[in-house]
Amino acid sequence: MVFSKWKGSITVYFSLILIVIIALILVMAESARISGVRAGMFSKLIIASNSVLADYDRDVYSNYKVFMYDGEIKDEAILADRIEKSIASYLSFGAGEGVDFNKARVEKVELKRINRVTGNLKERFMDQAVDYMKYKMPADMSVDFLEMLNVLKGSNKTMEVIKCKAAVEAKIFDCQDMILELVAQVDGIYCEYGSYGRTKEGDLIPNESFAKLIVNYLENKESVGINNDFVYSCMKEAYYDVGNEIDVLLENLEWLCNNFEKYNDKSDKVFDECQEIIYTIEEKSKKCYESIEVALAFISKIKEDAKEIELELKIFSERVASNRKEISEDIYEELVKENEELLKEPLNNLDGIENRLKQNKVIVEKLVGISGCGYSYSQSGIEKAYKSINTLKEDIKDYKVDDICFDYSKVKREIPVKRDSNMDGLKKIIDEGIARICISNYDRLSKGRLNDTGLVSQVINKDTSSSLSSKIEKIIKSPKEVMSDMVGKLMNALEEEIDVKGFLSKSKEEITDELLFSAYIGEYFTSLTNTKANSELTHTLAYEQEYIVIGDRSDRVNIKGIIKRLLGIRVVMNLICILGDGGCRSQAHAVSASLTGYFGSAAVTYFVSTIIQIIWAYEEAIVDVCAISNGRYVPLIKTAPALKVQAATIFIFGKPTIENLARAYSTTDSPTDFGYDEYMKLFIVLLDDEVAVARTMDLIQSNINRNYNKNINFFRLLTGWEVEITLEHNDILTSIPFVSAYDKEKKHSKHKMKMSYKCSY
Fold first, then answer.
1. How far is it, in rounded angstroms, from Cα 249 to Cα 375?
2. Are strands 717-730 and 104-116 parallel, antiparallel or unpaired?
3. Are 606 and 486 members of one domain?
4. Based on the domain organization, do 574 and 656 belong to the same domain?
5. Distance between CA 66 and CA 455 in Å, rounded?
6. Among 121, 186, 417, 665, who pairs with 632 as Cys (CB 3.0-4.6 Å)?
7. Are 755 and 628 in a shared domain?
8. Are residues 756 and 637 in the same domain?
9. Domain boundary at 648, 679, 710, which?
């Protein structure tokens, strides 16, 4: 009876305990379920993001071993929306069962950040190449290479005026080279700096692809703006008479129209001849069209450079005014004179040439599409082609070249010098250009040129111009300083050119990465002596490593820049050898004494001896560079017995002598010798990382587009992104019937959570 009094309360009490226990179990279950939802969805997010990244550009990876995702568009918002939809699609793939089980769904996918490869060149491209090479290269290669670099430590001094002068000279030389390239493109004469390309007999070398390729006739030299009989006689047979070809084509088409029903062997033959003429016109028109585009680009660049040169000369004059003691006035006057000559010759009608080329480009574009005339083996096809080509014949009458004029009045028929003579031989080498002397078959070097548009390197504003050779040439031509000052300038110039001290101040990890990246470039990019790298591809530039170092879009200019750098290094290294050897100094002194005579003072003899040692080192360097550029190996540090040029023969020096002496060097490598590839690695390692990576991207972009008919652009390539998803999931507690009945509006039945993931290659 006593318990009956409390039995209702006990029931309620135990019911409450039971409810608390059930609630605790449900809360724990819900907590575990939410953790499971988070872990499961995060795993799906990783898989979905990486699945999108798995759609990397296969052509870039298969040829260059770097992962890049092609976003295909540059617009950030559109690109983000496309990637978000792709990730959402992967998240929802096969998720029906999962959604029902977890009571969760993806409400929103949002990209927080997109990592474009151009956003951080070193981290997003160079690191991938380095990681790849770590598995490909021996671990101790960096140590060996560093040991070789230790011998190149130099002075830390710099000369502000010489740097400014070098920048102006480099710009002038580049502009002169472009003018000669323009002459070659427009008039069809193969040109090089300082001279026109000639055969051994002295005849001009014609260029197969140029802007005057398509003309109707050549009645006289005035019709093509040539004011030199010899040049005209060399070029007369070089032009392609498209008007005559079209006349023959129309005549054949007309015959086919009249005799088509009488099918026989002749009609079949005439049909094939017409087809061949159409292909010929189209092919040669393509060459002409490309040449006009290049010529127009040259003209635009020359105009820009001319303005920059004027500005730089003003800056240089101000530097000279504040540094009269460091540099003589005649150097400035010489630069001004060079600039004036540059702007006068050989162009006297730059705007007129540009306008005419633009008009001709429109006409040639029609010839490029001549195969679209509808020509087919049917009556209607032949008639359609006849009408189309007859109209085209009228259009090409407006193609003119009479106002595209260059001044060839100074061009003369001269047979190249074949024998060495006196000191004029060295002067001729300097005047004609070291590259032509040092490289066998120089005239056969590639004339490839990289397209100016869409290059990553265009956004890298760093000056990497080289003019060490020019500085050395100036010292040799007009030596006025004492020996110690001259040698000091050479050493300072080398330090400016190759910042070994800055390189060695980096951490071991940074140095190792740069060495591995240089090995990567050597593996996948061509050079003068390594033409088989990545041989599966057709390369836009033949000398890709040279482009990475020099940065000009012309193969020829890049080769010249490398030769100048090689020459600068070898002059300094040879000078160290000569100055450090008593026997060499005695030889130079003996030659000096023979020149100054018995009555020459000791000071004069000493001064002349100094000049002889400088010239000796320079000529020895020319032989070294000739050997190196032709695949031979030269000791990095020479001893006196290793010198090929002797002091007594420095005044009898020419190309035959250079080539004979260069052949004495070995074609096999040794630990103490440096070949062309080793110097290229050195230049690349000491190059600024961003510049090296940007130019590497230029080459990859151009080669992929050229070989795979793509429109790849590194500005739209990605290496990863950060994505955030918002999840909405149901609450199990609110799904209990009596609770659900209480929460009729379902306000508390759903919850949201966010999670983010950073994915990258």
1. 12
2. antiparallel
3. yes
4. yes
5. 18
6. 665
7. no
8. no
9. 679
Are 562 and 671 members of one domain?
A: yes
Query: Alpha carbon 430 to chain centroid distance?
Result: 27
53 located within any domain:
yes
Domain presence at residue 705: no
216 is a domain residue: no
Question: How crowded is residue 334: how many other Cβ atoms within 10 Å of its Cβ?
Answer: 15
Q: How many residues does the chain have?
A: 761
Mapping DSSP onto H, E and C, the string for 432-462 reads HCHHHHHCCCHHHCCCCECCCCCCHHHHCCC
**CA–CA separation, 740 and 760 (whole Å):** 44
Burial 169-207 (b: 16+ CB within 10 A, else e): bbbbbbbbbbbbbbbbbbbbbbbbbeebbbeeeeebbbb
In a domain, 654, yes or no: yes
Do the Cβ atoms of 294 and 555 come closer than 8 Å?
no
* 470 and 593 belong to one structural domain: yes
Closest C-alpha among 277, 276, 257 to residue 267: 257
Q: Cα(295)–Cα(18) distance, rounded to whole angstroms?
A: 91
Give yes or no: residues 756 and 654 share one domain: no
Element (H, E) at 755: strand 750-760
Closest by CA to 663, choosing from 695, 701, 605, 623, is 623
Buried/exposed code over 212-251 (b: 16+ C-beta within 10 A; e: otherwise): bbbbbebeebeebbbebeebbebbeebbbebbebbeebbe
For the chain, list residues with pLDDT below 50: 1, 96-101, 139-140, 142-144, 146-159, 194, 342-343, 345-347, 415-423, 476-484
Cα–Cα dist 80/85, whole Å: 9
The pLDDT assigned to 587 comes to 85
pLDDT at 462: 57
Please give the structure tokens belonging to residue 661: 């002496």
**Kind of pairing, strands 195-196 and 673-674?**
unpaired
Give the side-chain half-sphere CA count within 13 A for 648.
Answer: 4
> Based on the domain organization, do 593 and 483 belong to the same domain?
yes
Give the domain-ending residue among 679, 703, 730.
679
Could you report the per-residue pLDDT of 140-164, keeping only the tens digit for each?
454 445 444 443 333 333 345 556 6
Q: Which residues contact 442 (CB under 8 A, 6 or more apart)?
A: 192, 435, 436
Instruction: Give me the number of domains the chain comprises.
Output: 2
The phi and psi torsions of 347 (rounded to 5 degrees) equal -90, 130
Cα–Cα distance, 465 to 215 (Å, whole number): 40
Q: Which class for 95: exposed (0-12), middle (13-18), buried (19 or more C-beta within 10 A)?
A: middle
Strand 195-196 versus strand 191-192 pairing type: antiparallel
- Give the domain extent around 73: 3-120+722-760
